[in-house]
Amino acid sequence: MQFHKYDVIIIGAGGAGMRAAIESGQRARTAVLTKLYPTRSHTGAAQGGMCAALANVEEDNWEWHTFDTIKGGDYLVDQDAAEIMAKEAIDAVLDLEKMGLPFNRTPEGKIDQRRFGGHTRNHGEAAVRRACYAADRTGHMILQTLYQNCVKHGIEFFNEFYVLDICLTETENGPVCTGAVAYELATGEIHVFQAKSVVFATGGFGKVFKTTSNAHTLTGDGMGIVFRKGLPLEDMEFYQFHPTGLAGLGILLTEGARGEGAILRNASGERFMERYAPTIKDLAPRDIVARSMALEVLEGRGAGPNKDYVLLDCTHLGAEVLETKLPDITEFARTYLAVDPVVEPVPVYPTAHYAMGGIPTNIHGEVLRDNDNIVPGLYAAGECACVSVHGANRLGTNSLLDINVFGRRAGIAAAEYALSRESHVELPENPAASVEAQVALALSEHGQERVADIRTELQATMDANASVYRTEDTLKTALHDVQALKERYAHISVQDKGKRFNTDLLEAVELGFLLELAEVLVHGALQRKESRGGHAREDYPNRDDTNFMRHSMFYKQGEGLTADIRMDFKPVTFTRYKPMERKY
Amino acid sequence: MTATAETVSGSRGSQPPVPDGAVTVTVKIRRFNPEIDDEPRWDSFDIPALPSDRVLNLLHHIKWYVDGTLTFRRSCAHGICGSDAMRINGVNRLACKVLLKDLLEKGDKRTTITIEPIKGLPVNKDLLVDMEPFFEAFRAVKPYLVTYGNEPTRERIQSVADRERFDDTTKCILCACCTTSCPVYWTEGSYFGPAAIVNAHRFIFDSRDEGAEERLDILNDIDGVWRCRTTFNCTDACPRGIQVTKAIQEVKRALLFKRV
């Protein structure tokens, strides 16, 4: 075992982690621990843009952006947090530009902006051009720019260090975070990092689903670690399905395509979004578009030999727009489906994309241990966190915004807290014990279950029973399946027993987190007997503000993978927007 | 360990059902685990696969159902994260961007695919190499915007044409396909390599940047751009379609004429 001591450690090197590191690293002694090399993180897969009311191409202001975010989230958004995000969006974009991000430009040389789903002028009048973008690789440019600036500032990285636990020390005022424990992939060695502040920025858990835009590595590790410590997770039943995944594959095609004018059509060529969202049509928020697409297919209007997808028609945009503003998705369609968007419409269907819920934090990124109290020294930002700025449904581009605004805030808060503490709080006894036990157990001989089989079955039941539309019956099936898979997980076999780059072991550990989070998602979806944002219950088709205008909070009860889940609720923060019916 | 090919199959329990339209692929993989091997060896796996499968799917099939010790990096699986660069049938490619049908002759019912780690970087285990020397070269060229003086309150102004000037090199995902396809890099590990030069180019030709001279000085070094012999391997290898050799030539020209 090796021991390290820092002021701040940041877990994860995607957009939120590196944005935090740039702030923290200039103030306090900081290390970034990351399962992947920094430039491999899935921020790089984000395409369409990052919204900010710069008003570079038409009238806009941050108040409209706030409203759109709240309405887009079906009023489950904490309104104070949404206001901060929309206000700070402007500086967040300008900061990135100053760091070197090559945004596309207007003819005057300013940052160009394009339309995006749910972003409107004057509270819903029409789509507004708010998304700042770099072709259709905005996330790639953000990830590269942040890494470049980490290089510039000499940020210290521990690459391919897989954090498996955090250290909580009990004090008279409750638990305090004092460090983290990591497994070094290269050597199999365990490292204890003592720190005054720990920031989680570990991303999402899309791999609970089969059809997903998420990377293989997005297994909810950070959320899982926090949950296993008895700390809450918030709003986990709200999972976003992005409307335009390449049919059958789930690879993302940006909403920016529709922002540039692409149209969704059913088998007969009808522009069906006109029926579901008469004002902004194809640029309705993602939950609405995804449900509309699923309905078209369910009602027999799907395209293709099995009528199981719809078509994204870009043909009228012309080769030049596609090649210059949407080059990557044009290539994805050509490479993976052998469809050329210049001349033919692209088969698309909703793909599991983004967790609205996560580790509950306040607006400084401080992690909550219940509705009222924080865990001193523990922070979270980005997709793994729930501030909550996305409520029941995130608007497109607001995730790139979230990681920049709240990554920055968490980095500053973590560093300032660390600097305000004279000395490190003592670590708990045997901080590495549970990780050592976890690794030893996974490598020991105790069964013949294959990780891949359990994972495949998990993903199949989640796709079939807990995706765009849900019912009591499907969710009960999913819950039953997930619990049975958890039992089987106790008998997994890891074939690679070595210490060196043991990715077989890594996948087994990741599966444990996936199972844990899948159950929380399904549990929450069963309890929430209403339809709101990304959570659509066929048996409860309406929003129920009387009983469910509140955040869900999930706590693990007891030890082990099959322990129970306790559910609680947390009030939504309102400032100036009263809930209204959500129409577009 | 001998370097002979041995076909391994079914060593991990029952196999998943074979899909309709599958062909049989013999995947020959260069293996090396310094924990147990004295030298690299070849393993062969016969597995069923669909023509629409990515090579990454084949590797996953082997890892998940046949041999869990097979080791490689991967993440996004659609050519954006740059994790899974490897030598596939002798050329550098991302395993998630090569489809089996691209490697099949029309009508083939079986084929053989050879997969090796990218060359020029130390092999850590199987297809997984030590990326540190590669990232070290990247970090050495000051791959970030260098500016002096006060920052403007709003964004810096940049014309559409000036933005277009360096567009191509902003696409780089640091996968190392280019650098590890370069024969000069194979023999002279001290050469910065194409990827580092591409990333220097991205800033040298950015109208907002004021660090071009510092970077050109670095690249004028004995291990800099002059090592390039314009074999175009790098351009062929780039999964992002970047005109790598052209970018290197533009940096050379900037050095010769001392202007950007």
From TrEMBL, chain A:
Keyword vocabulary terms for this entry: Electron transport, FAD, Flavoprotein, Membrane, Oxidoreductase, Transport, Tricarboxylic acid cycle
Write down the chemical reaction(s) this protein catalyses: a quinone + succinate = fumarate + a quinol
Give, as in the UniProt entry, the pathway in which the protein acts: Carbohydrate metabolism; tricarboxylic acid cycle; fumarate from succinate (bacterial route): step 1/1
Query: Which residue numbers delimit the Fumarate reductase/succinate dehydrogenase flavoprotein-like C-terminal domain?
Result: 455-584
Q: Per the UniProt record, which residue ranges are transmembrane?
A: none
Looking up InterPro entries in the UniProt record yields: FAD-dep_OxRdtase_2_FAD-bd (IPR003953), FAD/NAD-bd_sf (IPR036188), FRD_SDH_FAD_BS (IPR003952), Fum_R/Succ_DH_flav-like_C_sf (IPR037099), Fum_Rdtase/Succ_DH_flav-like_C (IPR015939), SdhA/FrdA/AprA (IPR030664), Succ_DH/fumarate_Rdtase_cat_sf (IPR027477), Succ_DH_flav_su_fwd (IPR011281)
Which enzyme type, at the first EC level?
oxidoreductase
Q: Which cofactor does it need?
A: FAD
Give the E.C. number(s).
1.3.5.1
Which subcellular locations apply to this protein? Membrane
Q: Which residues form the FAD-dependent oxidoreductase 2 FAD-binding domain?
A: 7-400
Q: Which membrane topology term applies here? A: Peripheral membrane protein
Q: Name the PANTHER family on file.
A: SUCCINATE DEHYDROGENASE 2 FLAVOPROTEIN SUBUNIT, SUCCINATE DEHYDROGENASE [UBIQUINONE] FLAVOPROTEIN SUBUNIT, MITOCHONDRIAL
Q: Which family does it belong to?
A: Belongs to the FAD-dependent oxidoreductase 2 family. FRD/SDH subfamily.
Q: Which NCBIfam families match?
A: sdhA_forward, sdhA_frdA_Gneg
Protein name as annotated = Succinate dehydrogenase flavoprotein subunit
Lineage, broadest ranks: Bacteria, Bacillati, Actinomycetota, Actinomycetes, Pseudonocardiales
TrEMBL record, chain B:
Q: Which domain of life is it from?
A: Bacteria
Q: SUPFAM superfamilies this protein is in? A: 2Fe-2S ferredoxin-like, alpha-helical ferredoxin
Q: Where is the 4Fe-4S ferredoxin-type domain?
A: 162-192
Q: Return the EC number.
A: 1.3.5.1
Region annotation (Disordered) maps to 1-20
Any one Pfam family here would be: Fer4_8
Q: Where is the composition biased (Polar residues)?
A: 1-14
**Stored Gene3D superfamilies:** 3.10.20.30, Alpha-helical ferredoxin
The protein's required cofactor(s) are namely: [4Fe-4S] cluster; [2Fe-2S] cluster; [3Fe-4S] cluster
Going by the UniProt record, its keywords in alphabetical order are: 2Fe-2S, 3Fe-4S, 4Fe-4S, Iron, Iron-sulfur, Metal-binding, Oxidoreductase, Tricarboxylic acid cycle
NCBIfam families associated with the record: dhsB, PRK05950.1
User: So what family is this one in?
Assistant: Belongs to the succinate dehydrogenase/fumarate reductase iron-sulfur protein family.
The name this protein goes by in its record: succinate dehydrogenase
